[in-house]
Amino acid sequence: MIRGNYQAWSYSSLDAITRDNVQDLELAWTWSMREGGWNAPSPIVHDGVIYVTNYGNLVQALDGRTGDLIWEHEVGIEAQSYSGMSRNLAVYEDKVFLATSDARMVALDAATGEMLWTMRFGDNTQGHQSTSGPIVVRGKIVQGLNGCERFSPVGCYISGIDADTGELLWTFHTVARADEPGGDTWPFTGVRERGGGGTWATGSYDPELNLIYWGVGNPNPDYYGDLRPGDNLYSNSIVALDADTGELRWHYQFTPHDLNDWDSNQIPVLADIEWQGSPRRVVMLANRNGFFYVMDRVNGELLLATPFTATTWAREIGADGRPIVLNDGSKGCLPDPWGSTNFMPPSYYPELGLFYLTARETCATYVAEEPTFVPGQSSFGGVVFIDGDQGSGALRALDVQTGDLRWEFPYPSPTFGGVLTTAASLVFAGDHEGNFMAFDAVSGENLWHYQTGSRIWGAAAMTHMLDGRQYVLIASGTTLTAFALPGQ
What we know:
The protein has about 500 residues and is mainly β. The protein has a domain at about 120-460: 8 Propeller (Methanol Dehydrogenase, Chain A), CATH 2.140.10. Helices cover about 0% and strands about 40% of the residues. It is globular, with a radius of gyration of 21 Å. The two termini are about 25 Å apart. The mean pLDDT is about 95.
């Protein structure tokens, strides 16, 4: 499954590639993905077959040994969509599931690529889209939506879908309705139609608690808050939902009444750790607002919140769980709308207790303007000016007990590459300049590097073992590249 497990660790127990031999990694094969738009897939491997999604709702099955095509199925696009991009698939039993960019769920036969069924989980005429795929839990496909910044009476939500039949089982609306808990955080004077709350990054799942953890996007309109006084729940939040019913168990809002597009579509990472001498089930999330959070995933109690970038917006979270804002933008630059990190997967190394992420240091000025609203169209409430001379990035390793920085590797520009760790004490990551690299997980020493020729965007590397040979795969531009040790 995407990121290796339900807990979203982006960590592998494979250890054939080590710190001592990683410098010998060589090109095993490459596969040219479809051109025409963004490609940021996270491949899934099952029984030696690699399943990967391409731009334009094209699903391909590749031979894991050679990269040769086994089958492909082009679902196509029924209506114009934002990008035609899909970041990941789900594999369950004998089916491959694709959430299309125009908000359909498609079930394909994993052996042949034949379409088994399709259903629509969003309304593309109202601007609904999908750029990330689902997870499958207890026979249910769980899927989010984006395109929620468009003026629409439908709103945005997370869906539960029957994996066998495609029947819609439940929905959770991310903009609280007037008669629901959180409804009083919106004025509801025509705002419901433009509420936002996109859910476009794939969440995580705790099988024992039967809870799904999902990030929710920004309120709408962006940047201009006068039309939506209040905290605007459940925007900029993590929500914990009952997997059987979609019922909300708890939530935590990272950035109330967001004015900077710092949505919370980052990856919730689950772990069982010792916390201050006692075992604790936690969820960890590095947020776009620049803070690293640790919460109790049973009840949402905040355990830790500490900044992981140099942002001057806020440097601490108050006793009420809300950020203490120091700089509203009038005292210097703020993180840009892409934030201090974004949807690219972080990684958790359980034996080391370290959380690895791509951090972005940026400088932006926000100018709010009252927007106009046109059905089906975006309605940004202002403009943003970004100082390109002050931008940089870094791969950072954080101590999950304290949030303290253990080490970092600087990148020359703000970067969107994800992170993979392996049990051989390796970290794989890439930058905006196209460098795919391996690092020592303890010290941060750069051990190996390969220039892919295109930026590493959104995706993290994945690794798998086939015929006793460990492969590492990374998507870059329109190329999927596999690496392995010679003669392994």
